[in-house]
Amino acid sequence: MQSCATKLSAIRDVVLRRHMKVAFFGRTSNGKSTVINAMLRDRVLPSGIGHTTNCFLRVEGTDGDEAFLTTEASGDRRSVSVRRARWFQREFRCLDEWDAHLPPPPPPQTVNQLAHALHMDPTLDAGSLVKVFWPKSRCALLRDDLVLMDSPGTDVTQELDSWIDKFCLDADVFVLVGNAESTLMNTEKLFFHKVSERISKPNIFVLHNRWDASVSEPEYIEEVRRQHLERCVSFLAEELKVVGLEEAAGRIFFVSAREVLSSRMQRAQGMPETGEPGGALAEGFHERLREFQMFERTFEEFISQSAVKTKFEQHTVRAWQIAEAIKAVMDAINIASADKKIFCLEEREDQRDRLDFVRGQINRLSNNVKERIRSLTDDTAAKVATALSDQIRSLPVLVDEFRADFSSTQETLERYKTKLLQHVEERIVSGLAHRCSVAVLRDIRDAQKHMIDSVRPLLSQSVQDQLTSPSASFELTYDLGLAALCADFRENIEFQFSLGWTALVTRFIGVANAKRALSSSDPRLQDNSTFKDEMLVSIATGLISVTSRASMTVLVIGGVVCRSVGWRVIAVSLSLYGLLYLYEKLTWTNASRERVLKQQFVEHAARRLRAVVPVSSSACGQQVCKELSSTFNRLTQRVDLSEAELEGNIRQLSFRIQRLENIQRRSKAFRNRATELETQLETFSLRYLQGH
User: Fold this and answer.
1) What mean pLDDT is predicted for residues 578-602?
2) From the centroid of its chain, how far is CA 275?
3) What is the pTM for the complete model shown?
C-alpha cells in the first residue's frame, strides 16, 4: 500500500503540472548536453571535453527576452549571456580552490562559464538542480511548454535511487544517449532497470551518438549498426518490456549531435549547413543529419500530436494497475478478516460454553462438597463422642495407673491433684488420638483429593500450573479442659466409720443427698431434686431429728431391747462394733486416703466429662469442617481466577471481532472506491485517449 501511495503521489504531481518533461541520461561524455543543444539549435548548455555537466540542468522556456538561471540553494536570478568568455573558463580551471583573501570572481556571463563555476562550488553535487530559463523566442521547441533535463553521467555516482526519486518519477520521456563507439553498458542498463521498477513502462528513446566515427571503417558500418540495433531492441522489448519488438526499432537512432549542432549554428549565421568546417565532405553526413531530423520528427510527434496520450496514457494504465492492486489487497484483507472473524467467533463461543460449564459445575460441586463436609463433620463428632465415652468408662483404670507422692498436707495434696489431672488428660487425649485421628485425617485427605480432582478440569492451564497440594500440617486437637472442669473438686479424706450414722445415711441415700440431709440442705438444691430423693431425705432428716431431740427415747428403746435380747448380746454387739471401729481407725493410712481421693476424683471427673462429651465432639467436627471448607475456598478462588481469565478472553475476542468487522467494512469501502475509480479511468480513456 505504501508503494501504491508513492506511485499515486507521483501520478498526481505529473497530472497537476502543465508541461512535458524529457530527461536525458547516459554515461559521461556521451554527448547528452550536445544533443540538447542540437535540438535547441544553440549552445544553451555547457558541453566540451571531459566532465562538463556536474549537476542536473533543467531547461525550460521563459516569456521574457533575457535568459537567467536559479539554483536550489538560492532563488536569486543570475543573468546568462550567449557571448563567449573563454578567459573566465581558463581562470577557473587553473585554480584548484579560490583564495579566501582574494576578491570574489566576476559573475559568469555564459552557461558554459556557469557550469564550470558551479563545478567549483562545493555546495553543489551531482544531485543538485540548476534551472535554466531560456527565452522562448530563441527556441521554438520550448514554446510548447517542454522541459529538457540534462544530467551528469550515470557512471559518476552510486546514488541512482535518489536521482530517480528526485528527478525521474515525473518525467514523460527518457532519452538514453549512448556512445556509438562502444556498446550499451551495464551502468546504463542498471539505471533504466531501476527506473522501470519505479515507473510502469517508461517512454524511452535510444540515441547512438558519435555515429560519425563509423566513417573510418565503412566496411563494418552495417554490421555495427545491426549489432547496436539488436542489443537495444532486446534491451527495450525483452529486458525492460516497455515496447513491443515491432515498436522498439522505431525508438533507436544513430546520430552525430556535434555535426548537427555545428551545421545549424552555421546556418543561423548565414553559412551553408555543412556541419564542421569541411563537414560537407564528410562521408555519410547527410544520412546522419536525416537520422537526427527523423528523431526530432518522431520526438515532436510523440510530444505534440500525442501530448495527452503521452502524458496520461501510461499514468492511466498505472492508475488502473494500482486500482487493481488495491482491489486485490482489499479482497485479500476482506477474506483474511472474514476467516479470522469466523475463527474468533468460534473461539468466543467455545470460551462462553466453557465459562457456562465451569459455572454450572462449580455450583453442583459446591453443593456436593458441602454435603460431604457436613457428613464428615457429623462422622467425626460421632467418632469422638464414642471414643470419649469409652475413655470415661475406663477412667478408674487410668486413675489407678497414676503414681505420685501422697500426703495429707494441703500443699502436697494440691501438687498431687495437679499431676493427676495432667496424667488423666494426657491419657484420655492419647486414647482419642489413637482411636480417631488417623481415621479422621485419612477421611480429610480423601475429601481434599476428591475436591482437587473435581476442580482441576475446571481450571485453565495457567491456573493449573499454580495449583498446589493442600498442607499436611493439619492435626485434630482434643481440648478437654479437664483442669477447668475439675476446678471445683473438693476431696474428703477425713476418717469416717463405715457403720457410723453418716456412712449409713450416705450409703442409703447417696453422697449428695446425705450432705443435704446432714446439713440443713440448700433450698436451691431441693429445686433440682427428684421426688424420690426428696422422700429419702425427709425420712433421714426425721430420724436424725428424733435422735437429737429425745435422748431419753434412746434409753427407753435401749431398755426395751435389753429386756428382749439380754444384756450379754448387747455387750457382745457393742464390743464387736467397737473393735470394728478401732480396726478401721488403725488402718486409715495415706494409702487409704489416696484410694478414697481417687474414687472421689473418678466420680467427679466422670460426671464432668460426660457433661462435655457433646461439646468436645462437636468442636472436633468443627475443626474438620473448617479445614475442608478452607481447602474448598482456596480451590474456588482458583476457579474464580479461571472464570476471570475466560471473561477476559471473551472480551478480548469481542474487541477483536469488532475490529475485524471494521476492517471488513473499510476494505469493502476501499474496494468499491477502487471499482469506481476504474470506471472513471475507463471513461477517461475512452473519451480522451483512444481517440488520439
Assistant:
1) 75
2) 76
3) 0.50
